[in-house]
Amino acid sequence: MSRPEDTLPPDLFYNDTESRKYTTSSRIQTIQATMTHRALSLLHLTTPSLILDIGCGSGLSGEILSLPSSSGTPGGPHTWIGLDISSSMLSIALEKDVTGDLFLADAGQGVPFRPGTFDAALSISAIQWLCNAETSEESPEGRLKRFFGGLYASLRRGGRAVCQFYPKNDAQKRMVSAAAVKAGFGAGLLEDDPGTKNAKTYLVLTVGGGELDGDITGVVRGLEGVDVVDQRRGGKGKGAKRGVEQKGSKAWIVRKKEQMERKGKVVKASSKYTGRKRRIAF
Amino acid sequence: MKLLTLNFLTCAIKSCKTSPASFPLHPRDAELEIVEADVNLAFLQNILPRLMWAELRTIASELGLPTLPEDIPEREALVEGRGEGEGEGEGGEQIPSQTAKDLHRVLLETCIQEGKLVCGNCGHEYAVKEGVANFLLPGHLV
Ligand SMILES: C[S@@+](CC[C@H](N)C(=O)[O-])C[C@H]1O[C@@H](n2cnc3c(N)ncnc32)[C@H](O)[C@@H]1O
Ligand SMILES: [Zn+2]
């Protein structure tokens, strides 16, 4: 099956027909709800918050954000603002009378809110679209830079963002996380059901200051399978980082390889097998 | 679009980012609607320190709404004084005061349904239809 991102721009792909098909599919509703709950558990919200939903579509996540904590939404009910590039998707959200405010906007053009607006942000199944540029004046790097730069500024200090997305390949995963780190975020990647066709990638992002002081390890500590992509030096979390990026883990090996490469040494190219335990062959 | 949202929204055009005049955006030909919602006291308490009060007052007056008090309410003013003898009992729900209800009315129930939002710096107009603002920019303005 080809990826929709490779066929059409998002606003054309999510036309009236596709948007309706998408929103009414009970299979999709279930998957998106599960991922929204996963993202919420990573956001650790304890009080009703102001949340940005990037690529909110028809509001499947938003409906969950608006629920009280007694209905399973941590810290809820939250107030949310959604951005989406597809007017068809937004029309369906309007029909459903969602309580969040909606914007027709391209996240690749930035995030038009003043600094420190949001407690948190989430994005479910959307940001892989930013890796495509529809015109020759744009580049995926430029779009990712504007998006993460704008997102970083619009979050309050100590705020967090979780973006579940479908990277096309490892290179795209790296391009996206690198853009987030460059914008100033502490970043971690979390993979659910890795290696299966149901694999889900979550980019977990923190903003310095506030209670976490940008220490991504505070978010990912105790969560299995998280690779820290934060490469900033001099952060406070140095000691703790070890605990997450365990010696011998893939992240550790990749970092060591990078160090050696920088020193001019020849290292074996990293692959999806890097850092895996080798099976003992009899 | 809630007036709350307008209190955080800026012009999306890059060259406006550094100009103070690009916030707040000014409503023009606005049609307002009251959309009722439950008061969320904890949310109001959370958001209060982030409000730009002077700008909220300006927008309210531009929209012809009743004049807001000169100073932003204190956090304590959002909670109704509790009855005598009840003390600081745990688990007791805080009751929103009239101030909290008024603030809720302005921020979360007063919505711009139709009209435009205009940047005070570059003059760009963002259309609002059915409460949804169009922030798509032509390529050369990004
Ligand atoms: C798979 S849908 C997910 C929708 C919603 N987040 C959900 O979980 O149901 C992807 C959404 O991303 C939106 N999208 C794609 N590129 C975008 C962009 N550059 N800016 C804003 N939204 C975008 C699409 O219009 C579409 O609604
Ligand atoms: Zn402007």
Automatic annotation (TrEMBL), chain A:
Pfam families with a match to the protein in the record: Methyltransf_11, WBS_methylT
GO cellular component: cytoplasm; nucleolus
Keyword Endoplasmic reticulum: no
GO biological process, one term: rRNA (guanine-N7)-methylation
Keywords: Cytoplasm, Methyltransferase, Nucleus, S-adenosyl-L-methionine, Transferase
Annotated localization: Cytoplasm; Nucleus
UniProt-listed InterPro entries: Bud23-like, Bud23_C, Methyltransf_11, SAM-dependent_MTases_sf
Every Methyltransferase type domain range: 52-162
Keyword Metal-binding: no
Coiled coil: none
Superkingdom of the source species: Eukaryota
18S rRNA (guanine(1575)-N(7))-methyltransferase Bud23 C-terminal domain span: 225-279
GO terms assigned for molecular function: rRNA (guanine) methyltransferase activity
Protein family (similarity comment): Belongs to the class I-like SAM-binding methyltransferase superfamily. BUD23/WBSCR22 family.
Name used for this protein in its record: Williams Beuren syndrome chromosome region 22 protein-like protein
Organism: Lophiostoma macrostomum CBS 122681
Record lineage: Eukaryota, Fungi, Dikarya, Ascomycota, Pezizomycotina
TrEMBL record, chain B:
Stated name of the protein: Trm112p-domain-containing protein
GO-annotated molecular function: protein heterodimerization activity
Transmembrane segments annotated in the record for this chain: none
Biological process terms in GO annotation: rRNA (guanine-N7)-methylation; tRNA methylation
Recorded coiled-coil stretches: none
The family this protein is said to belong to: Belongs to the TRM112 family.
Superkingdom, natural source: Eukaryota
InterPro entries on file: Trm112, Trm112-like
